[in-house]
Design goal:
By secondary structure, the protein is α+β, with helices and mostly antiparallel strands. It has four helices and four strands. It has a single domain, classed as 2-Layer Sandwich (Alpha-Beta Plaits), CATH 3.30.70. A four-stranded antiparallel beta sheet has the order 1-4-2-3. The protein starts with a helix and ends with a helix.
Length: about 90
């Protein structure tokens, strides 16, 4: 079986999840957070929720250039299972 076939089959088992990012991510640029999630946690962070000034208005921003992670930021990512997403609540070791 070719390498791409294995990658494809592994990808078909993944789903999208949302989770509040750990305080360890606060003030981290989005690009750095995505790299850290992928290299250390094996999670693919795709987007974050960006809240408006009054917290009543929010939007989902995919790959937001220049954005920094704030407290209680909701992350949108791809993972094999919901259990993998719990790592984001526990912080980074």
């Amino acid at each position: 079986m070719q390498v791409w076939t294995n990658d494809y089959l592994r990808g078909t088992g993944m789903e999208m999840y949302t989770e509040t990012l750990s305080p360890s991510f606060i003030s981290m640029p989005f690009g750095q957070a995505t790299e850290l999630c992928f290299t250390k946690l094996k999670l693919l962070l795709l987007a974050i929720e960006i809240k408006g000034i009054d917290d009543n208005d929010s939007k989902i921003s995919i790959n937001p250039r220049g954005a920094k992670i704030l407290a209680n930021t909701q992350g949108f990512f791809i993972a094999q299972s919901a259990d993998e997403s719990l790592v984001l609540l526990q912080g980074l070791s």
